[in-house]
Amino acid sequence: MTPRDWPIGRKFVAGTLAITLTAIAFVSVFLIVSEQRLVRAERVANTHALLGMVANNAAASLVFDDEAVAQQILAGTTAEPTTRAAALYRSDGSIFASFSAPRYTSPIPQSAQPSGAAFTADHLDAFADVLSSGKKVGTAFVRTDLSAMRERFRGYTMTVLGCSAVAVVLVLVLARLLQRLITQPLLSLSSTAAAVTQKSDFSLRARKLGQDEVGQLVDAFNRMLEEVETSQQKVRTHAASLEQQVNERTARLSEMVAEMEAFSYSVSHDLRAPLRTIRSFAEVILETPAGRDAVTGHHLRRIARAAQRMDRLIVDLLAYSKVAKTELKLEPLDLDDVIDDVLADYPQFAASGAEIEIRKPLGRVLGHNAAISQAIYNLMANATKFVPDGRRPAISIWAHERGPNRRLFIRDNGVGIAEEDLSRLFRIFERAQNAAKFDGNGVGLSIVRRAVEKMNGEVGATSALGEGSTFWLELPQASPP
Ligand SMILES: Nc1ncnc2c1ncn2[C@@H]1O[C@H](COP(=O)(O)OP(=O)(O)O)[C@@H](O)[C@H]1O
Ligand SMILES: [Mg+2]
User: Fold this and answer.
1) What is the model's pLDDT at position 261?
2) From the CA of 260, how far away is ligand 1's center (Å)?
3) If we measure between CA atoms, which residue out of 356, 413, 411, 410 comes closest to residue 388?
């Protein structure tokens, strides 16, 4: 985790600590260095004062070569407790008198040196000219011990460092307290934001802990939540009312559809009875002397045929609406059996003299027996119907696998269909140009399409004028029993 990823609280504490440590380090170094310089300067001044006194008092003893007095003056330097040794040198630099503090055994310089002070490891050596009437008569020397000064300096340093450590600890504690002041509102805001996104609950609100910028941010955030919540509520109410409207309309619509269906069903049904009556009476009258009149007979036969066509149309329309209405329960079916049943149920195909070739086995599909039978019947009826006069109808039926499906083909040797007519013929009431001279109403193929699509299948055809047609239907393949 890089410092960039640290929590805000840690960043704040670390930043504060870094700044404080830098400042304290600078101040401590400054204090310690200036204290050291101050202490040294003080020591040099003290030693010079002592040296000055020795030089003043000893001038006469040097001039008169009075060693006993010189000795006494040197011994007087012990008034200053740090004095370790003192000495007087003649003007030629040779030692004249010397004094060492009790138990101080280190040697002292054996010849005079130019006036000045020099620090060594543990003491300060200072020389000064001794003057009499403005003329140099010798040199004075004093050596003072530095251990007391060092002790004082060490104590001072320890105090500074101790104070710094206490300051750092205090800063740390304060930074932690202040950090809470700054981060708490931010943390509370961020946890609310996280809760809002996690639960998608826009009714939550962030807690405002102060009037600062974070407080303003909290206000803005809460206002935003409020707006989102109101729009969400609006959308919900709108959706609910829409759903209700849709439900109401759907209910009304299904009611209407049901009524319509019941209506058309009963109309269709009720139409068939009078049609049958018309047809029967026309046929009855045909048998009477009046019907045997050529013109009347012609008209009567037309009436009977029209009634029969209309009856056919009603039957087809009933079949069409039935396919639309009923829910088909699909089951595995053997197409060989289905074809055999169709041929058995509609003996007119065999009786028509048509040549029917079936390339068994046709395979198994998932479908509804009655619906497939109806579709195959309609296709075979067309195949035997749309044949030029005098030609013997020939029908081939075969099937093959196509992906997960099975496609059943029914080919004829009929009049064929023009390319431009092919696509619309599966719609209700659509007939091709060349179909006019054949009986029909254009409902059959639409029943085929509806039935096959109800079974999750597809239908289609390929043809060319005068070359026969191939109709196919494709259904999901069923596994062998
Ligand atoms: N096997 C076919 N050969 C030629 N034309 C066909 C064939 N099957 C269907 N058609 C054309 O498609 C039209 C629609 O067929 P269909 O819906 O069964 O109506 P209908 O048989 O009552 O005419 C037919 O009128 C005809 O023009
Ligand atoms: Mg037809």
Assistant:
1) 79
2) 28
3) 413
Do 124 and 143 touch, CB atoms closer than 8 A? yes
Give the pair of three-digit tokens for residue 161. 């460092």
Return the residue whose CA atom lies nearest to atom 18 of ligand 1. Answer: 444
How many Å lie between the centroid of ligand 1 and the Cα of residue 36? Answer: 121
Token pair 């530095």 is found at 146
- Which of 323, 380, 382 for a ligand 1 pocket mutation test, highest count of atoms within 8 Å of Cβ? 382
Report how far apart, in Å, the C-alpha atoms of 142 and of each of 4, 43, 132, 135 are: 63, 12, 19, 21
The protein residues having their C-beta less than 5 angstroms from ligand 2 (an ion) are 382, 444
Q: Is 300's C-beta closer than 6 angstroms to any atom of ligand 1?
A: no
Nearest to 461 by CA among 444, 478, 476: 444
Atom of ligand 1 nearest to the CA of 383: 1
Those residues with Cβ within 8 angstroms of residue 341's Cβ, 6 or more apart along the chain or in another chain: 373
Q: How many CB atoms lie within 10 A of CB 345?
A: 10
- 83 beta partners: 144
Q: How far is CA 237 from CA 196, 199, 227, 231, 234, in A?
A: 21, 20, 15, 10, 5
Ligand 1 nearest atom to the CA of residue 445, by list position: 17
462 lines ligand 1 (CB under 6 A): no
| pLDDT tens, position by position, 384-425 | 999 999 999 999 999 999 999 999 999 999 999 999 999 999
358 is written with which tokens?
A: 């079936």
169 pLDDT tier (thresholds 50, 70, 90): very high
Q: Is 351 helix (H, G, I), strand (E, B) or coil?
A: helix
Q: Which pair of structure tokens corresponds to residue 448?
A: 């085929």
Average pLDDT along the chain: 92
Q: Which residues pair with 399 in a beta bridge?
A: 408
What DSSP designation does 257 have? H
Q: Is the CB of 431 under 6 A from ligand 1?
A: yes
Residue 25 vs residues 21, 33, 110, 167, 175: alpha-carbon distances, Å = 6, 12, 45, 11, 18
Query: Is ligand 1 within 6 A of the CB of residue 316?
Result: no
Question: CA distances (Å), 244 to each of 233, 237, 240, 248, 250, in order?
Answer: 16, 10, 6, 6, 10
